[in-house]
Write a structure and sequence with these properties.
Helices cover about 60% and strands about 10% of the residues. The longest helix has about 50 residues, at about 110-155. The chain folds into 4 domains: about 1-130, 3-Layer(aba) Sandwich (Rossmann fold); about 155-160 and about 170-305, Reverse transcriptase/Diguanylate cyclase domain (Alpha-Beta Plaits, 2-Layer Sandwich); about 320-430, no CATH class; about 435-535, Homeodomain-like (Arc Repressor Mutant, subunit A). The protein starts with a strand and ends with a helix. With about 525 residues, it is of the alpha/beta class. The radius of gyration is 38 Å and the shape is extended. It is built from 22 helices and 11 strands. Helix 3 runs parallel beside helix 4 (about 60-70), helix 9 (about 205-220) crosses helix 10 (about 245-260) and helix 12 (about 320-330) packs antiparallel against helix 13. It has helices spanning about 10-20, 20-25, 35-45, 60-70, 85-95, 110-155, 160-170, 195-200, 205-220, 245-260, 280-290, 320-330, 335-350, 355-380, 405-430, 435-445, 450-460, 465-475, 480-495, 500-505, 515-525, 530-535, and strands at about 1-5, 30-35, 50-55, 75-80, 100-105, 180-185, 225-230, 235-240, 265-270, 275, 300-305. This is Response regulator. It comes from Paenibacillus piri. InterPro entries: CheY-like_superfamily, Homeodomain-like_sf, HTH_AraC, HTH_AraC-typ_CS, Sig_transdc_resp-reg_receiver, Tscrpt_reg_AraC-type_HTH. Keywords: DNA-binding, Phosphoprotein, Transcription, Transcription regulation. Pfam families: HTH_18, Response_reg.
Length: about 525
């Protein structure tokens, strides 16, 4: 626990430090302040449970501090230690939540009793707060989740309405005689970045909060119900069944979300459909309305379904720019990559309308082209290579305010292509590295009598340089590398019962059968014959 001692006289603060058995009472963090104003800053920062304060101090006295605590920090337990036996001061202490009023000079036992009482009071309040919070959490989780499930079922199986119609009428005022309605989908994609970050660790709380805001407007005029759709990870649905204007109520909801979170959301809304049988159609229409919205128009947030198919003014394909972008990636120049991507971005900017589906199609084209380029550059080795950068999962490029950002789209592409270019260059450098050429040479000539000197002569390098660099690159001696290859080949040949041990030895580069058997047993733990007996079918 934490405590703070507020008194303008240092000897009084020192006396309190000496008189209270802090360790015995479980208080291990003790702060001091010479006046109320300094105390407020420390209280905000450290959140002490116990507060000792004098009443008469410069800058800000104890009376003003008690008033501030009563309003801004009611959970703290305050003990007043004063040199004035004044009724008004005592009354002020009680009025603003002080637990005790102790006169100076301080009596040790009286002070200890006051601290024990304050600790007990704080723990009792804390237990009650926790129980209340837990109860609220459980109620807020169970009850809404139940109704979310019931309402979600209406989208997939409208016939379930009859079995729960009376419950809906009692809970939401939904008249059983309602024969038509509309469905709206609230998209959380376009929430501001700061809001998403704030709720990153508790996204359920964000859904709960926005759903409550929607229902405040809907239930006031019995216009509809907002709920989290169970068959989607990021959708809040609004079932509109009232007689009022859907446009008006959705705009009110927009304003309500803005006033609480200072962020706006996009809402797709269906045409009027029969209720409840038309709910699946309404859900499809609302989803289409969201996907067909023009991302350039960031000020338009309500998107009604029009029934008209999307008809872009000028079709644009990412593949049209594939050759230019591929050449820039192969150049290894970030500047060239930026120039090629910029040409693509300029073409996108000339479009009158961009929809989410169009962005997804372009990203799919990019992913297919990228995979093709990797196979061209890395060939059959691609499946064996580690850390090959793949295309990221498609994400709508949104700025801090939740609006579509062509600049972020550009940076995303440049970053993806730059990483691919860097990996390609590293791969090429690896292939051209003489040490890897030596490794390839060993792999192709393992069955011959290869010596370090022969390799040095073949590659015009010193034996010492080859040994040192080979060990640095492969973390194994060249001779052990050769032995491992020979032994792996030998294991395969031993599976053939018609080959003699001597023949196998010669085929993997050992002229001496006994030496081959000795090396084999040392590295494999058994002789060639034993290996053959165990592994042959």
């Amino acid at each position: 626990m934490k405590a703070i001692i507020v008194d303008d006289e240092k000897h009084v603060r020192d006396a309190i430090r000496l008189l209270v058995p802090w360790n015995e009472l479980g208080i291990d963090d003790i702060r001091e302040a010479p006046d109320g104003q300094t105390a407020i800053s420390l209280i905000k920062e450290h959140k002490p449970q116990i507060i000792f304060t004098d009443m008469i101090m410069p800058v800000m006295g104890g009376a003003q501090l008690l008033e501030w605590l009563h309003t801004h920090y009611p959970s703290g337990k305050t003990i007043v230690i004063s040199g004035f036996d004044d009724f008004q001061l005592v009354r002020h202490t009680v009025q603003y939540g002080g637990l005790d009023y102790i006169l100076k000079p301080v009596d040790a036992e009286q002070l200890r009793s006051a601290v024990i009482k304050a600790i007990a009071s704080w723990r009792q309040d804390e237990d009650e707060r926790r129980r209340g919070q837990q109860l609220n959490i459980e109620m807020n989780q169970i009850r809404p989740a139940y109704w979310d499930k019931m309402l979600s079922n209406l989208i997939t199986d409208p016939s379930t309405f009859e079995s729960v119609a009376d419950s809906f009428a009692n809970e939401y005022g939904l008249d059983r005689n309602v024969r038509e309605g509309r469905l709206a989908i609230v998209s959380l994609d376009t929430l501001s970045g700061s809001l998403k970050q704030k709720f990153e660790s508790n996204i359920d709380l964000l859904f709960f909060s926005i759903t409550n805001i929607c229902n405040e407007f809907l239930q006031a005029g019995k216009q509809g119900i907002a709920y989290r759709y169970w068959n989607s990870d990021d959708a809040i649905l609004i079932l509109l069944y009232g007689q009022g204007s859907a446009e008006r109520i959705l705009n009110d909801i927009q304003q309500g979300i803005w006033s609480v979170f200072h962020s706006r959301v996009d809402i797709g809304v269906s045409n009027v459909q029969p209720f409840p049988s038309g709910l699946p159609t309404a859900y499809t229409e609302a989803g289409i309305a969201l996907r067909r919205r023009n991302l350039w128009l960031t000020d338009k947030k309500i998107h009604p379904y029009t029934g008209q198919p999307s008809n872009p003014s000028a079709p644009l394909s990412f593949s049209d720019y594939a050759e230019l972008i591929q050449l820039s990636v192969r150049s290894g120049s970030k500047e060239q990559i930026e120039k090629s991507v910029q040409q693509w971005i300029e073409a996108v900017k000339r479009l009158d309308s961009i929809e989410i589906g169009q962005l997804e199609l372009w990203w799919q084209e990019y992913t297919v082209l990228r995979n093709r380029w990797q196979h061209e550059w890395f060939g059959d080795r691609l499946s064996d290579m580690k850390n090959v950068p793949g295309a990221s999962r498609f994400q709508l490029p949104l700025d801090e305010k939740g609006a579509f950002s062509i600049a972020l789209w550009r940076e995303l592409l440049i970053g993806e292509l730059t990483r691919l270019s860097e990996h390609m260059l590293a791969h090429q450098q690896q292939d051209n590295n003489v040490i890897f050429e030596i490794a390839k040479y060993i792999q192709n000539h393992y069955h011959q009598d290869i010596t370090l000197q022969e390799i040095a002569n073949h590659f015009y390098l010193s034996r010492e340089y080859i040994s040192r660099k080979f060990k640095q690159e492969f973390h194994v001696n060249l001779s052990d590398y050769l032995s491992n290859i020979r032994l792996e080949k030998a294991k395969l040949l031993l599976l053939n019962p018609h080959l003699k041990i001597a023949q196998v030895a010669a085929m993997v580069g050992y002229e001496d059968e006994k030496y081959f058997s000795k090396v084999f047993k040392k590295m494999c733990g058994c002789s060639p014959n034993e290996y053959r007996k165990v592994n042959q079918k």
